[in-house]
Amino acid sequence: MLFPIRLLAVLATSLFLPLASAEHTNNWAVLVGTSRFWFNYRHLSNVLSMYRTVKRLGIPDSQIILMLPDDMACNPRNAFPGTVYSNSNRAMDLYGDNIEVDYRGYEVTVENFIRLLTDRVGDEMPRSKRLLTDDKSNILIYMTGHGGNEFLKFQDAEEIGAWDLADAFQQMWEKKRYHEILFMIDTCQANTMFSRLYSPNIIATGSSELDQSSYSHHADNDVGVAVIDRYTYYNLEFLENQVKDLSSQKTVGDLFDSYDISKIHSNPGMRYDLFPGGADVARSRLITDFFGNIQNVEVDQKENGALEEELLELGRTIAMLRQKEADELNQYNNATSVPASQPTEPVKHIRGATALTEDNWWTKKVVGATALAGCVGLWALGSFLET
Amino acid sequence: MTISLSASALSLRRDPRMLKAPPYLSFACILIGLIWLLVLPLDEYSRRTYISENALLPGQVHTYFGGSEQHVFRAYKEEVAALSGKDTHEINNSIEEILKGFGVKVGRQSYTYGAAGGAHSGENVYGILQAPRGDATEAIVLVCPWKTIDGSENRVGVALSLTLARYFKRWSLWSKDIILLFPPEPKVGTQAWVDAYHDAHDPRHVSPLPLKSGALQGALAIDYPSDHHFSTLHIIYDGVNGQLPNLDLINAVGWIAGNQMGIPSFIQGQYAHQNSYQDRLKTMFRGMLSQGLGNVAGAHSSFIPYHVDAVTLQPWGMGHQDEMAMGRVIEGSFRSLNNLLEHLHQSFFFYLLMSRDRFVSIGTYLPSAMLLAANFTIMAIFLWVKSGQAPESEGDKSKEKTTALDTSNTVERDMLLPAAIVAGSHALGMIPLFIFNRLPGDVLPHAFAIFSGISIVLPLIVSHLLTSFYKPTVQQSQLTKSFSLLVLGLSLSTLATLNFSLSFIIGLLATPLSFVQPTKSQPLRWGFAALLSLIAPPTIAYTAAMAAGADVGDLLRDASFGWNVLGVYTPVAIWGVWWPAWTVGTVNVLGFAAA
């Protein structure tokens, strides 16, 4: 009796596993600052620091949606015009080279944010402002600003509620717009913002609990404002020191374990229950699964033979079309007599791609095998001579 | 249930004890109002000050004023010293030359005001330092009068302002233009300039400004005559008509001075503030007196009516802080103001400060003045109700009242005479208001003496005329007092929201008016009259002048100046509210029949 059950379990896991661990093929990042005004400099530098990190780990600008409500670099109060720093040592200008802000100024609204997530946008919306994800996309969503119990303020004018966010994520799930999401938020009472999420495959983390403030890390006394928040600062510290490149094997769990309440001055929260497999699976996800750009290739399930057949068919069609074109050209040249005095334009020949033909397939295989055998011979000879 | 309740309420209304209660209630209001004010300095009722505007970020920047700027300062100090004793035009020529020397646009404006017979004329010179990356929609002002509040030459202040201007010019981080204003003296020049800046000037007396910038967001004035090193900073904040700058400004400047520069600051001249109850109370009273009088306290005062938050900074005492430290306080404050995104609005505009870091806000202190005002209203309503009831006592002398006694004991009210007396006395109040603001300064003391005499005799004459020709009734006496107190209560409660201190002071001085009434006993009657003459407005004016060690003429000249130049409305409250109420009260005691 026991045996068949065990067998069933093994069978079930073997069936389920490839589904759950089905890999993502693209990475996206949505980085949102929600405050404007000079004294909120740190929120902008939080976002820009994250932007730099995901870019460092390979996510291209085309797959990063950056929302910045204010332009600190060009604020007249900025003692260092054209720059934004997230550290008072001012070692790295976050604004300097190559930055693409997708939503700026008063474009950063709750409506635009939700439309971005759910892709409910008009035809006129440029592709650079759209989140063109599919069910194989891993998305990092990072938000920062001034918040409260289950809300995050957008620009002194409006706020997004925890339910709004949860519903937007659910719509994304229903529309197959993500594979997995890492939701990260740095604001006062941040953990309340992800308390209402109910869609699967989401790992959420925030800087502070209900009734807790999120604090700034330090101020730059020449810029005259706080330059970064604590939670973001320590996240970045981990990412900069531990996740040096895409080959890093650090996991989300490692990042969460690095949080030190005595340094952050608030209690960071995590949420794993939405993730299939719970905390263990969620924590074992690599950092680079969300912050990096891992381009796993999805191998097509069709037989290789069929693909070759199709390619061959395509090649034959091309050959046929070429022949037809040549015939027509000949006919045209014969029909019209050109006066000798007029210079004729030289007939241009554009070399197209070589069409695939079936005849030299075996020859290619033989040539390749010979080259390989030659290499092996050379290597064998070399190692023999060395000893 | 409701029927029985309303029935009991009705019976309560008819209860004779109800009619006995109001005078006690009224007295309780006064007592509670006074105690209310006296407990405010306690820790339980006052609060520590805090900065509530996020944008200010005081003390978060390094200040770099110092070093080689010290040499620049010394050089300017020489130049300023050379101008000592010269006339305004020459001084302004030199300041203009210096300002233009480092690329600041300069404008000049002349003005002539007349008050108390004298002419106040002069010429302002000012420079606009345009923000290199700003949009010229906003500006902050550094005011440095050539004369200090005490009348001495503001030498260090002017040299420091010029050095700061030259230094500010080198920074590119200003979001607002910086205006440097050098009026010849702190009161009139600033007023003329601020009026003209807002196009609210009288073109007959004040010429328009040739050069303007954006909306003024804040102003600091320097009052720094002495050459020696100082120990503390006196922050002067009272504005015209008792208006105050936003508390955030005082806190921010105090914070920058204290926490960043290590210079303690104090207010209301309370140099040695031990933070004891007595010191706090004294500071609060000084603040209230200054607010109640409503006159200018410094060069910053004229800005406040235009909702430009401003304070004067006055280095004080002997210590080890030098001019550069003072310069850094101003630099830090300007960097804070520069951070502002909108007008200061987060913190309080209505407050009483107990010390530099303790305050009470309007919600906490207003009830005390309101209770004083309510005492008059309660008495007025009480007298109104009483005047409508026929007296039960045998002391009733009127004949017509007995007819109305059939069902209820109500009587017709004869309101013509009381209304005429009250309206007449308020109309008479316009006379002193007019003459004291129009007469030349040297006549003022004599005019005031004559007026004081008339003010004492007037009630006697009126009451003599009343008793001999009219034989006023008890009811008319009650109605006269009722109307007068009603107007007083109404005016004072309104005034309390605008100028708490003025309302409180007048309310307190007028409280006896609630309780004095005609009596049959002739000695008591004259006793009341004597008491009232002690609290008569002219008596108070003489006493106040004596207490302040000043001549009453100075007081009147200041008042006239305040009215004509600055738009101070304190005289209206005195001659239009207080004096008529006092006159009616005295007439009521002397000229009416007793109940």
Automatic annotation (TrEMBL), chain A:
Keyword annotations: GPI-anchor biosynthesis, Signal
Keyword Nucleotide-binding: no
Pfam families with a match to the protein in the record: Peptidase_C13
Ranges annotated as spanning the membrane: none
Signal sequence, renumbered to the chain: 1-22
GO cellular component terms listed in the entry, alphabetical order: GPI-anchor transamidase complex
Lineage: Eukaryota, Fungi, Dikarya, Ascomycota, Pezizomycotina
Gene Ontology process terms (BP): attachment of GPI anchor to protein; GPI anchor biosynthetic process; proteolysis
Pathway the protein contributes to: Glycolipid biosynthesis; glycosylphosphatidylinositol-anchor biosynthesis
Protein name: GPI-anchor transamidase
UniProtKB/TrEMBL annotation, chain B:
Pfam families associated with the record: Gaa1
Transmembrane segments: 21-42, 365-385, 415-436, 448-470, 482-506, 526-549, 561-581
Keywords: Membrane, Transmembrane, Transmembrane helix
GO BP terms: attachment of GPI anchor to protein
Keyword Transmembrane helix attributed: yes
Gene Ontology cellular-component terms listed: GPI-anchor transamidase complex
PANTHER family in UniProt: GLYCOSYLPHOSPHATIDYLINOSITOL ANCHOR ATTACHMENT 1 PROTEIN
Protein name (Swiss-Prot/TrEMBL): GPI transamidase component GAA1
Lineage, opening ranks: Eukaryota, Fungi, Dikarya, Ascomycota, Pezizomycotina
